[in-house]
């Protein structure tokens, strides 16, 4: 995981890049359960949406 902080005059607070590798047998049918959450860290918004 790589995190970058843009210039202070940018509207972007933080930028991240992730590179991941998952080994799966190519001869088989596979389900790889992945979950990724990017969202608000404002707890009032999360509570309103029923998260947390």
What does this 3D model show about the protein?
This protein is low in regular secondary structure and 52 residues long. Helices cover 12% and strands 12% of the residues. It contains one helix and two strands; from the N terminus they run E-E-H. It has one helix at residues 43-48; strands at residues 2-4, 15-17. The longest helix is centred in the last third of the chain and has 6 residues, at 43-48. It is flat and about 50 Å long.
Q: Sketch the topology as an H/E string, one letter per element.
A: EEH
- Amino- and carboxy-terminal Cα gap: 24 Å
Q: What is the percent of helical residues?
A: 10-25%
Biggest sheet details: 2 strands, antiparallel
Structural class, please? little secondary structure
- Rg, Cα atoms, Å: 17 Å
Question: How are strands sequenced across the largest beta sheet?
Answer: 1-2
Residue stretches low in confidence (pLDDT < 50, at least 5 long) are none
Count of discrete alpha- or pi-helical segments spanning 4 or more residues: 1
Query: What is the number of strand segments?
Result: 2
What overall geometry do the principal axes of the alpha carbons give?
flat
What's the average pLDDT?
Answer: 78
Strand content: 5-15%
């Amino acid at each position: 995981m790589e995190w970058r902080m843009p210039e202070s005059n940018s509207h972007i607070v933080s930028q991240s890049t992730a590179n991941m590798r998952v080994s799966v047998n190519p001869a088989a049918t596979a389900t790889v359960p992945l979950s990724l959450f990017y969202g608000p860290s404002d707890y009032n918004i999360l509570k309103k949406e029923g998260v947390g």
